[in-house]
Design a protein that fits this description.
The complex is a heterodimer of chains A (about 110) and B (about 110).
Chain A (H helix, E strand, L loop, with lengths): L3 E2 L4 E5 L4 E7 L6 E7 L6 E7 L4 E4 L2 E6 L4 E6 L8 E8 L6 E3 L3 E6 L1
Parallel strand pairs in A: 2-11
Antiparallel strand pairs in A: 1-3, 3-8, 4-5, 4-9, 6-7, 7-8, 9-10, 9-11
Chain B lengths: L3 E4 L2 E4 L4 E8 L5 E7 L6 E7 L2 E5 L6 E7 L2 E7 L7 E9 L2 E4 L3 E5 L1
Parallel strand pairs in B: 2-11
Antiparallel strand pairs in B: 1-3, 3-8, 4-5, 4-9, 5-6, 7-8, 9-10, 9-11
The chains are: A mainly beta (about 110), B mainly beta (about 110).
Chain lengths: ~110, ~110
Amino acid sequence: DQQVKQNSPSLSVQEGRISILNCDYTNSMFDYFLWYKKYPAEGPTFLISISSIKDKNEDGRFTVFLNKSAKHLSLHIVPSQPGDSAVYFCAVEGGSQGNLIFGKGTKLSVKP
Amino acid sequence: ETGVTQTPRHLVMGMTNKKSLKCEQHLGHNAMYWYKQSAKKPLELMFVYNFKEQTENNSVPSRFSPECPNSSHLFLHLHTLQPEDSALYLCASRANEKLFFGSGTQLSVL
Protein backbone atom coordinates (compact mmCIF):
# COMPACT_ATOMS: atom_id res chain seq x y z
CA ASP A 1 0.00 0.00 0.00
CA GLN A 2 1.23 3.47 -0.81
CA GLN A 3 2.59 5.43 2.11
CA VAL A 4 2.51 8.71 0.20
CA LYS A 5 -0.52 9.50 -1.91
CA GLN A 6 -1.07 12.22 -4.45
CA ASN A 7 -4.64 11.56 -5.50
CA SER A 8 -4.83 14.11 -8.29
CA PRO A 9 -2.83 12.98 -11.33
CA SER A 10 -3.27 16.36 -12.97
CA LEU A 11 -4.29 19.95 -12.27
CA SER A 12 -4.96 22.81 -14.67
CA VAL A 13 -4.83 26.42 -13.48
CA GLN A 14 -5.03 29.82 -15.15
CA GLU A 15 -1.94 32.01 -15.06
CA GLY A 16 -2.00 34.36 -12.09
CA ARG A 17 -4.29 32.16 -10.01
CA ILE A 18 -3.36 29.91 -7.12
CA SER A 19 -2.27 26.30 -7.65
CA ILE A 20 -2.85 23.92 -4.76
CA LEU A 21 -1.27 20.48 -4.87
CA ASN A 22 -2.16 17.96 -2.21
CA CYS A 23 -0.43 15.02 -0.61
CA ASP A 24 -1.51 12.55 2.07
CA TYR A 25 0.67 10.22 4.05
CA THR A 26 -0.07 7.24 6.23
CA ASN A 27 2.51 7.22 9.01
CA SER A 28 2.32 9.81 11.77
CA MET A 29 5.98 9.14 12.58
CA PHE A 30 7.16 10.80 9.37
CA ASP A 31 8.83 14.05 10.32
CA TYR A 32 10.31 15.66 7.22
CA PHE A 33 8.48 16.42 4.01
CA LEU A 34 9.68 17.67 0.65
CA TRP A 35 8.31 18.75 -2.70
CA TYR A 36 10.18 18.10 -5.92
CA LYS A 37 9.45 19.51 -9.36
CA LYS A 38 10.15 17.67 -12.60
CA TYR A 39 10.22 19.00 -16.14
CA PRO A 40 10.11 16.58 -19.09
CA ALA A 41 13.50 15.07 -19.95
CA GLU A 42 14.99 16.30 -16.67
CA GLY A 43 15.41 14.76 -13.24
CA PRO A 44 13.36 16.01 -10.28
CA THR A 45 14.71 19.10 -8.53
CA PHE A 46 14.17 20.04 -4.92
CA LEU A 47 11.61 22.79 -4.45
CA ILE A 48 10.70 23.26 -0.79
CA SER A 49 10.55 21.27 2.44
CA ILE A 50 9.01 21.37 5.88
CA SER A 51 9.79 19.78 9.20
CA SER A 52 7.07 18.35 11.41
CA ILE A 53 7.78 20.98 14.05
CA LYS A 54 6.32 23.60 11.69
CA ASP A 55 2.97 23.93 9.99
CA LYS A 56 4.03 26.33 7.26
CA ASN A 57 7.12 27.15 5.25
CA GLU A 58 7.27 29.85 2.62
CA ASP A 59 9.75 30.52 -0.15
CA GLY A 60 8.75 33.23 -2.57
CA ARG A 61 5.68 32.12 -4.51
CA PHE A 62 5.79 28.66 -2.95
CA THR A 63 4.30 27.78 0.43
CA VAL A 64 4.02 24.33 1.95
CA PHE A 65 1.43 23.66 4.64
CA LEU A 66 1.52 20.69 6.98
CA ASN A 67 -1.52 19.38 8.86
CA LYS A 68 -0.13 16.68 11.12
CA SER A 69 -3.45 15.62 12.60
CA ALA A 70 -4.84 15.01 9.12
CA LYS A 71 -1.53 13.66 7.82
CA HIS A 72 -1.88 16.04 4.94
CA LEU A 73 0.58 18.23 3.09
CA SER A 74 -0.15 20.85 0.47
CA LEU A 75 1.89 23.06 -1.82
CA HIS A 76 0.51 26.46 -2.78
CA ILE A 77 1.90 28.37 -5.74
CA VAL A 78 0.72 31.94 -6.09
CA PRO A 79 0.64 33.54 -8.52
CA SER A 80 0.99 30.58 -10.88
CA GLN A 81 3.11 31.08 -13.99
CA PRO A 82 3.31 29.05 -17.22
CA GLY A 83 6.88 28.09 -16.29
CA ASP A 84 5.48 26.30 -13.25
CA SER A 85 3.97 23.67 -15.56
CA ALA A 86 5.66 20.44 -14.48
CA VAL A 87 5.10 17.29 -12.47
CA TYR A 88 5.24 17.85 -8.72
CA PHE A 89 6.26 15.01 -6.41
CA CYS A 90 5.59 14.91 -2.72
CA ALA A 91 8.19 13.00 -0.68
CA VAL A 92 8.64 12.06 2.96
CA GLU A 93 11.74 11.06 4.82
CA GLY A 94 10.50 7.78 6.17
CA GLY A 95 12.03 4.81 4.45
CA SER A 96 14.65 2.61 6.00
CA GLN A 97 17.75 4.60 6.89
CA GLY A 98 15.80 7.79 6.30
CA ASN A 99 15.39 7.25 2.57
CA LEU A 100 12.78 9.30 0.76
CA ILE A 101 9.41 7.83 -0.18
CA PHE A 102 7.75 9.52 -3.14
CA GLY A 103 4.18 9.93 -4.31
CA LYS A 104 3.09 9.33 -7.90
CA GLY A 105 3.19 13.00 -8.77
CA THR A 106 0.70 15.60 -9.95
CA LYS A 107 1.06 17.16 -13.38
CA LEU A 108 0.39 20.88 -13.17
CA SER A 109 -0.52 22.84 -16.29
CA VAL A 110 -0.62 26.62 -16.00
CA LYS A 111 -2.42 28.16 -18.94
CA PRO A 112 -1.57 31.68 -20.17
CA GLU B 1 22.40 21.67 -13.77
CA THR B 2 22.24 19.66 -10.56
CA GLY B 3 25.83 18.40 -10.56
CA VAL B 4 24.71 14.82 -11.25
CA THR B 5 25.35 13.60 -14.80
CA GLN B 6 23.83 10.48 -16.29
CA THR B 7 24.72 8.76 -19.55
CA PRO B 8 23.31 7.76 -21.89
CA ARG B 9 20.16 9.89 -21.94
CA HIS B 10 18.31 7.33 -24.03
CA LEU B 11 18.89 3.61 -24.49
CA VAL B 12 17.11 1.00 -26.55
CA MET B 13 18.10 -2.60 -25.97
CA GLY B 14 16.93 -6.07 -26.78
CA MET B 15 16.18 -8.62 -24.11
CA THR B 16 19.45 -10.48 -24.72
CA ASN B 17 21.69 -7.39 -24.64
CA LYS B 18 24.02 -6.28 -21.87
CA LYS B 19 24.34 -2.55 -21.27
CA SER B 20 25.40 -0.22 -18.48
CA LEU B 21 24.08 3.07 -17.19
CA LYS B 22 26.55 5.55 -15.78
CA CYS B 23 26.15 8.24 -13.15
CA GLU B 24 28.73 10.78 -12.03
CA GLN B 25 28.53 13.45 -9.33
CA HIS B 26 31.06 16.07 -8.31
CA LEU B 27 29.13 17.47 -5.38
CA GLY B 28 31.23 15.71 -2.76
CA HIS B 29 28.27 13.67 -1.55
CA ASN B 30 28.86 10.24 -0.08
CA ALA B 31 25.47 8.67 -0.73
CA MET B 32 24.28 7.70 -4.19
CA TYR B 33 20.98 6.19 -5.30
CA TRP B 34 19.30 4.47 -8.21
CA TYR B 35 15.57 5.12 -8.67
CA LYS B 36 13.17 3.78 -11.27
CA GLN B 37 10.28 5.85 -12.59
CA SER B 38 7.58 3.98 -14.49
CA ALA B 39 4.52 5.63 -15.96
CA LYS B 40 1.84 6.44 -13.38
CA LYS B 41 3.88 5.00 -10.51
CA PRO B 42 5.82 6.62 -7.69
CA LEU B 43 9.56 6.88 -7.92
CA GLU B 44 10.82 3.48 -6.76
CA LEU B 45 14.03 3.24 -4.81
CA MET B 46 16.28 0.49 -6.20
CA PHE B 47 19.72 0.74 -4.58
CA VAL B 48 21.55 2.92 -2.08
CA TYR B 49 25.29 3.28 -1.66
CA ASN B 50 26.96 5.04 1.26
CA PHE B 51 30.72 5.57 1.09
CA LYS B 52 30.85 3.04 -1.80
CA GLU B 53 29.10 0.34 0.23
CA GLN B 54 25.67 -0.89 -0.76
CA THR B 55 23.33 -0.21 2.13
CA GLU B 56 20.01 -0.96 0.49
CA ASN B 57 18.72 -3.29 -2.20
CA ASN B 58 14.99 -2.79 -2.49
CA SER B 59 14.22 -6.33 -3.69
CA VAL B 60 15.52 -5.56 -7.14
CA PRO B 61 15.78 -8.50 -9.60
CA SER B 62 19.31 -9.74 -10.22
CA ARG B 63 19.16 -8.70 -13.88
CA PHE B 64 19.99 -5.24 -12.46
CA SER B 65 23.49 -5.15 -11.01
CA PRO B 66 24.83 -1.94 -9.43
CA GLU B 67 28.46 -0.99 -9.04
CA CYS B 68 29.97 1.87 -7.08
CA PRO B 69 33.75 2.06 -7.59
CA ASN B 70 34.07 5.36 -5.70
CA SER B 71 31.86 8.00 -4.12
CA SER B 72 31.63 9.95 -7.38
CA HIS B 73 30.60 7.19 -9.75
CA LEU B 74 27.72 4.77 -9.87
CA PHE B 75 26.84 2.23 -12.53
CA LEU B 76 23.81 0.08 -13.21
CA HIS B 77 24.62 -2.99 -15.28
CA LEU B 78 21.70 -4.43 -17.20
CA HIS B 79 21.35 -7.91 -18.69
CA THR B 80 18.47 -10.03 -19.97
CA LEU B 81 15.95 -7.34 -19.20
CA GLN B 82 12.23 -7.65 -19.83
CA PRO B 83 9.96 -5.21 -21.68
CA GLU B 84 8.35 -4.25 -18.36
CA ASP B 85 11.75 -2.90 -17.27
CA SER B 86 11.29 -0.04 -19.71
CA ALA B 87 11.31 3.11 -17.59
CA LEU B 88 13.23 6.23 -16.66
CA TYR B 89 16.20 5.34 -14.45
CA LEU B 90 17.32 8.16 -12.21
CA CYS B 91 20.52 8.50 -10.29
CA ALA B 92 20.75 10.79 -7.29
CA SER B 93 23.23 11.86 -4.67
CA ARG B 94 22.25 13.03 -1.22
CA ALA B 95 23.22 15.84 1.14
CA ASN B 96 21.32 15.84 4.45
CA GLU B 97 17.65 15.31 3.61
CA LYS B 98 17.87 16.47 0.00
CA LEU B 99 18.40 14.38 -3.09
CA PHE B 100 20.04 15.81 -6.19
CA PHE B 101 18.92 13.95 -9.30
CA GLY B 102 20.46 13.48 -12.69
CA SER B 103 18.38 13.86 -15.83
CA GLY B 104 17.86 10.12 -16.08
CA THR B 105 18.27 7.45 -18.72
CA GLN B 106 15.10 6.65 -20.65
CA LEU B 107 15.34 2.91 -21.23
CA SER B 108 13.29 0.96 -23.74
CA VAL B 109 13.53 -2.82 -23.77
CA LEU B 110 12.29 -4.44 -26.97
